[in-house]
Amino acid sequence: xxxxxxxxxxxxLKTATVNGRIARYERRPRxxxxxxxxxxxxxxxxxxxxxxxxxxxxxxVMKGGVVVVKR
Length: 71
Prior knowledge:
This protein is of the alpha+beta class and 71 residues long. It has one domain (9-70). It is 28% helix and 21% strand. The protein has 2 helices and 3 strands. It is flat, with a radius of gyration of 14 Å. The protein starts with 8 loop residues before the first helix and ends with a strand.
């Protein structure tokens, strides 16, 4: 994992989400724009303290405004 290679948990999360999204979807609407759905992952714990919660403690996932995982 990139955190073991020296990134902070915040840098690793941004690399996996925001930075990757911008590179692949430059022409898509921004999250939060009216009329568009955001994708969301809910985890138990603080990923900025322990990034492993994003792998081990996922509680819910929404994609396109629809719940696809609920634990």
